[in-house]
Amino acid sequence: MVDAGTVQAVEFTLNGEKTKATVESRQLLVHFIRDTLGMKGTHVGCDTGSCGACSVIVDGKLVKSCMMLAPQADGAEIETVEGLAQGGELTPVQQAFHEQHGLQCGYCTPGIVMAATFLLRRNPNPTEEDIRRSVRGNICRCTGYVNVLRSIEAAAQAGRAGAEEAA
Amino acid sequence: MLLESVAYARPDTVAEALEALASSDGAAALAGGQSLVNVLKHRVASVELLVDISRLEELRQIARGSDGGLEIGACVTYDELDHSEEIRSSHPLLAEVASHIEDQQIRDRGTIGGNCCLSDPTNNLPPLLVALDATMVIESASGRREVPAGEFFHGYFATAVGEGELLRSITVPPLGADAGAGYSTVAVGADSKAIARAAAVVRGNGTIQEARVVLACVSPAPMRHSGMEEALRGAEASVDAVKAAAERIGDDLDPLGDAHGSAEYRRAMARVVARRAVCQAMGKGGN
Fold this sequence. Notes:
The structure holds two protein chains of two kinds. Chain A is 35% helix and 16% strand. In chain A, strands 2-1-5-3-4 form a five-stranded mixed β-sheet, covered by helices on one side. Chain A has helices spanning 29-36, 92-99, 109-122, 128-134, 145-166; strands at 7-14, 17-24, 55-58, 61-64, 77-79. The termini of chain A are far apart. By secondary structure, chain B is α+β, with helices and mostly antiparallel strands. In chain B, the strands form four sheets. Chain B has a five-stranded antiparallel β-sheet. Chain B has a four-stranded antiparallel β-sheet with strand order 11-12-13-14, with helices on both faces. The longest helix of chain B is centred in the C-terminal third of the chain and has 19 residues, at 263-281. At the A-B interface, strand 4 and helix 3 of A face strand 1, helix 1, helix 2, strand 3 and helix 6 of B.
C-alpha cells in the first residue's frame, strides 16, 4: 500500500544546496519557499496561477510555484531568483534588466527574470516573437513590457557575446 | 492561500495508483495540477486524498506503433508534446496546438490526460483528438478498455473515466498520405480562453472523400458537425465549396452566451473556425 499522509517529509535541492524539510501536504510550493524557507525573492501576486510572479525553475522547467504542492518538490532541483547571482555577480539577464530598466515597481520582476532565464537557456537566439511569448505567463501591471522585452533582447545579445569570447 | 487539509500519496506504479484511488471516496488523481490545484484553492471540490500520478514513468512515454500511429502517455506535458520529435514528425498539428496552450509555465506542468479528463469545453486538445479519431485507453484494477475520443467527452467536466479508473494513454492513428488536419480558434486573447474552436481532418485529393469536422465551445462536449461533413463529402476541394458547406452550421447549434461572446456570436464564429480548419486541412491557407 502507498503511504499517504497530510504531512510529508521532503528532500530537495534549493539553489544548489541539499535541503530536508517536513511539509503539510496542502501547502503550496510558493508558501513553502517563502514562509517555511524564508526565501522572499519569489513573490505571490495572484495565488491563482494567473500572474507568474511566483515563477521558479523546477528540474529545469519553468513553473508557477503557486500551482504546485510542496510535497511535489520531493526529489526536485529548485531554482529561485536568489540562486542566480553568484558571489554578488549578476547573471546576464539580471544585468540587462538593471541596465535597460526592465522593471518599474519590481513586483513581477523575480518571475519575469526566471522566465527570461528559462528562455535563454533553452534558446540563446530568440526571435522577437520568442521573447514576447516567453513572458506570456507573467503579468506586469505597471505595463512596463517594452523595457522587459528590451532587457531580454539585451541579455540574449550579452549571452551571445559572452559565448563568442569564451570560444 | 490555504487549502483544506488533504492527504498526498505518490505511488510508484499505475497499479498502486489505482489501489490508492480506490481506497477513498474522496481520492482524486493529481497530474499536472494546473486546474486541480486551483479547484482545491477555491474549495469547489472536496478531496481527501491526492494521488500524484505526474511522475509515473508508465504514463510519461511517447511511442510510435508499427502502423505509424502514436501512443501518448496521459502524463506527457504540453511542452513535451511540443518538443517531441515523434509528434513533430507524424502529427505536427498536435505539437503546434500544444505549443499555444496558455503560457510556458502551464505547458511545463499541464498534461494531455489532464486536458482531456477535465473536459472543460474550451480546452484545446479534445476537439483535435476527436478529429484525429484518437482512442482513449482507460485502466482500472480489472483491466484496460478503449473508448473512441468521440465518445469519451460526456459534457461539462464529465468523461468516460469512471470510479476506480484512470486514463492511461491516448492512441492517435496515422493521418495517411491523402489526408490533412486543420485547427482554428477565435479566442479572447492570444493563446487564451477560446470563444469558438474547430478541428478538422480531410481525406482526398481534388475531391473530398471524407471530412471530420469537430466544433468546440458551442456545446458541452466537442461535437462532430454531420451537416457540414455531409456537404463536404464528394465536393471539390476548393475554398468556395468549404464556404458553402460551412453555411450548414446554423440554428442547430445552441451555444451558451457569456461575457466573452453571445450565443449568436459563437454560432457565427463556429462557421468561421470550421471553414478555416477545413481549408487548412486541405492545404489551402486561404480563409
